[in-house]
Amino acid sequence: MPLSPEQEAEITEQRSAPQQTLRAVSEGMESHLYTAYPVLDHGFIRVVDYMGDDAAICQAARVSYGKGTKSVQNDEGLIRYLMRHWHSTPFEMCEIKLHVKLPVFVARQWIRHRTANVNEYSARYSILDREFYIPAPEHLAAQSVVNNQGRGEALEGEEADRVLRYLRDDAMRCYDHYEEMISQEGQQGLARELARMNLPANIYTQWYWKVDLHNLLHFLRLRADSHAQYEIRVYAEEICKVVADWVPFAYRAFEDYRMGGATLSSTALDCVRRMLKGETVTQENSGMSKGEWREFEGLLG
């Protein structure tokens, strides 16, 4: 189960005791506070706290640009301008703190984004739960033959059954040995900080993750992308839903300019100009490598 009874009770208590505040409040985010949204088989994300909203982004930008900006541009127009021209500082005025439960191998990918404050559940002091990520059959894929980082077709039949059996059995066996090693019944018991080394990478961990909106959007641009690994992408997609309600103007601009947009090199831009003039442009006369040309063709459809 994603949430323990104790966590469910804590969330119920937190949501039943709203506090008055004089700070800026995002109505869209208030509906998400403390609610746990399930991800994968045992994971979740939930918003623990946040600061700022779309207005905070504009407030920061107008301090930078001086008086009078408000009369020229509305808030959404200003935010789109900031996003379009890569003015990142105003987006740093908003922050979010998430409580995330995720498999360890996903956490190791996630932590590569070294732009957040993180505090993880400690297996030195506490005993990890017997919870492991086991992929659904449709996500049990073979290695891609064209991309060393990607997946190919889903495994089928006896091979899929065997792999799932290995994942379940090996995880359970490792946890059995973990429990046996730390047990103090009839023995001293191995220290938890040492016993944890025997646990598999698909066991679940938890952390608090606090990040500003600028760095969060960078995380989402990479991890909510269709090419990202499925197991981290589903977390990013769930966070996207929250961000869309928290800062709707900023999120719409992000979708338009970052998720749905593309960056062209000067060479690629020159090729576009030549095409618009009616010139036939090929990889051979484009000035691009085969890889660059393939990506360029993909952008143009």
From TrEMBL:
Cofactor binding note: Binds 4 FAD per tetramer. Each FAD binding site is formed by three monomers.
Question: Reaction(s) catalyzed by this protein?
Answer: dUMP + (6R)-5,10-methylene-5,6,7,8-tetrahydrofolate + NADPH + H(+) = dTMP + (6S)-5,6,7,8-tetrahydrofolate + NADP(+)
The annotated active site, in chain numbering, is: 223
Q: Which residues are listed for FAD binding in this entry?
A: 89, 112-114, 120, 212-214, 218
Q: Provide the alphabetized UniProt keywords.
A: FAD, Flavoprotein, Methyltransferase, NADP, Nucleotide biosynthesis, Transferase
Q: Which GO terms describe its biological process?
A: dTMP biosynthetic process; dTTP biosynthetic process; methylation
Q: Does the keyword DNA damage apply?
A: no
EC assignment: the record states: 2.1.1.148
Enzyme's top EC category: transferase
- Function recorded in the entry: Catalyzes the reductive methylation of 2'-deoxyuridine-5'-monophosphate (dUMP) to 2'-deoxythymidine-5'-monophosphate (dTMP) while utilizing 5,10-methylenetetrahydrofolate (mTHF) as the methyl donor, and NADPH and FADH(2) as the reductant.
What family classification does the UniProt entry report for this protein? Answer: Belongs to the thymidylate synthase ThyX family.
Know the name of this protein?
A: Flavin-dependent thymidylate synthase
Organism of derivation:
Marivita geojedonensis
Gene symbol?
Answer: thyX
